[in-house]
Please model this.
Amino acid sequence: MKNIVGISLLILLLVSPWYFITNEVNGGLMFYSSLILTLFLAITGFVIFLENRDPIQTITWLVVFCAFPFIGFIFYFLFGRNFRKERIFRKKYFLDKQRFVKMSGEAEHNDRMKEMDENSQQLFSLANRLGNSPISFTTETRILKNGNETFVNIIEEIKKAKHHIHLEYYIVRDDRIGGVLKDVLIQKAREGVEIRFLYDAVGSWKLARTYIHELKNAGVEMVVFGPLHLPLINNKFNFRNHRKIIVIDGSIGFMGGLNIGDEYLGHDPKFGSWRDTHLIVKGEAVRTLQLIFLQDWYYSTNHSFLTDEYLLTGSQLHHEHGGVQLIGGGPDSEWTIIKNIFFKMITSAEKSVWIASPYFVPDDDIFQALKVAALSGLDVRLLVPKNPDKRIVFHASRTYFPEMLASGVRIFQYNEGFMHSKIIIVDDQLASIGTTNMDMRSFHLNFEVNAFLYRTESTQQLVNDFLEDIKVSQEVEIDAFSKRNIGLKVLESTCRLLSPLL
Model:
């Protein structure tokens, strides 16, 4: 069943010219073409029906097929196919879970959990149950507020590497900062440091072959995640690795919102200043970041490095820094892990919920939770970009504003360039930072990684940074927003209609 639609399209493309040739004289072209297209649309619709998707998503696809048959058909092949994703990633899921459970079982019991309030205990227990990753109280973290600060620290720590460097990125560009990273990796490889670099096929599709070959020739292992062989029948095309991870010698890690490219330094004239947030991790929790990388590497290469040499790391810190829990989520998981943790964060809040997200297209659960929180009198704030980089998502997100504003959510549009941070802060003491956007693609289709922080110095820094970002943002007023012209409203509604398909 999983490739029936892909095979159907190939048959359609092969058979249609034959019907054109043999039936043009007899005037049967339109009849047979319509018959073939109808047949394969019916097959595709039946497959979507059997996938038991969200009813709104299913209905949206069927409407698109009826209104725009051929375009809808092609669009579905590129972006819409699930093909029972749990089967596609079944091997990866069970291997990941077994290793995470083993690691969690090896972790020492920490009485600090008992000192948390009940809501926080429930949240971190939920995260551990869904993500099989324990909370650590001996992990040091530090917030990196922009591209300059992030890349300076990354390059500095890479230069110190003695044994191995592991990198995993969605986007890698062959530009100035990409060149700086390439040069330092080549130098470390020549010094004998093991380097493994995993990059996503879709996110990095523009990456020059010369860039890859230079690194390979120097001894860097370059591996593409989800290579695009025959994308029309590639059932993994729509599931992308959106993670941004660096682990150096198993003792220090980086994760957060920044990819490798000059735009993340604010050098792209289209976006100007780029506001983003990254995180340095030192200590016990680095092992979780290492494990996420190594399992992605094993999935992509069938080469396992899941050994104590790489995993018995990062435990040298004995002083406490608050709670840190790193969670990986993706289409290989049994649950929508990070989305469910976000939902728990929002519904357990007692005073405030602050969210920063460049792409805000929530599913109904998150949308309702935010509205109910605001209606309950909580301080709910949403920080989004004022200017788009992905127009369909940007316009779709605006259709959620009226209901949110009416329920009491305060919405702010960031004015100083493009805002790409992915942050949730609850009650000033619990926070999430990572790669997960507040949209359905991140929740259901992408491989993501987030850090959940409880009463750390980094949590307080995120609170301070959020308040500073609000100062350079414009608050959306419900009266003014409701007066936007009808053409813009139609565009936004159309984009929202398409958003479940993405």
Q: What stands out?
A: The first helix runs from residue 4 to 23.
